[in-house]
Structures are given as structure tokens and as C-alpha cells.
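User: Working on a comparison across species. This one is NUDIX domain-containing protein from Streptacidiphilus cavernicola. Can you predict its structure so I can line it up against the others?
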Amino acid sequence: MSIERAARRAARILVLDPDGAVFLQLHDDPEVGLHWVLPGGGLNPGEDALAGALRETVEETGWTDVVPGPALWTWEHDYTRKGVPTRQHEVVFLGAAPRRDPVGDLAESFRLDGIMTCRWWTPAELEDCPDVLWPPSLVALMDDLHRHGPPDQPIDLGYLPNLP
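Assistant: Here's the predicted structure for NUDIX domain-containing protein from Streptacidiphilus cavernicola:
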């Protein structure tokens, strides 16, 4: 039996500090459980993916100075958003920013977006993370990015089902 899912477009930014650490947010979803995800979220109707990723990043971090780079990856995944089974198509962009905590009063944004906490992860810490990472291949994707630089065109990771 398949579940009818609402389609949603989203965009995120892989925010890296000068030393290669990545900024992630912890969410809890009834379908997925605890998982760490890049800042970003749903696109408004007609909104460009990069503009949406930057807008969402400002809303979730208070940072207005993230330097955007090229689109890195696209992927689709399932989760439950505010009680609605959803299939989300995401574009992930590269971004650069200094390492710091989010700024401003973000309590309402965190509550609305279901963000439990956030933190910077070094590549070594990320390799040892016992929690689910989104996208699931984030460690390998970041390693490939470090070794080869950004791709000429975004890499389509396809549909990635949730692990049991």
C-alpha cells in the first residue's frame, strides 16, 4: 500500500566555515526520527531555488552574509511535514560563512520549523555521527566536494528512501 504524498519544492545551503566544518540543524520527524539537516526549506510559489535557500537560511540562522556558491546536488525524500506525508525535491547549494552561532531571536522560527538545536560539525565529527544525516550520503558527498571541488552541474542523487 502506497501513501499519497504532497509534493514540495525546497532548497538548502551547505554552509561551510573556512576550516571545512558544516552547519547542521537537528529535527525530529514522526516518520524519520531524529535527523541532522542543512539550513533551508520550502520554496514560495515562483521563488528561485537559490533565493529561497538564502531566505530560509536567514530565517533559521539570522546570517545575512552567507556567500552562495553553485548548486551541488538534488534529491528527493519522504517525511511527514506538520502531519502531512510529503515527498520533497531539494536543491542543495554550496555556501561559505564564518563559524559562529545563529544570531537574533530565532525561537519562533525554530518552533515553526521544528528545529531542536543546531551546531557546527567538523568532517571527522560528522563521520562519527550516530544520527541520520540528510542527505544520507552527506559524509561521502562532502569528501568528494573536498577532493574534486563543486561539480559542473548539480549531481542528481535521485529518490532516497528512509532507512528503517
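For your comparison, note: Residues 39 and 57 are 5 Å apart (CA to CA).

User: Helpful, thanks.
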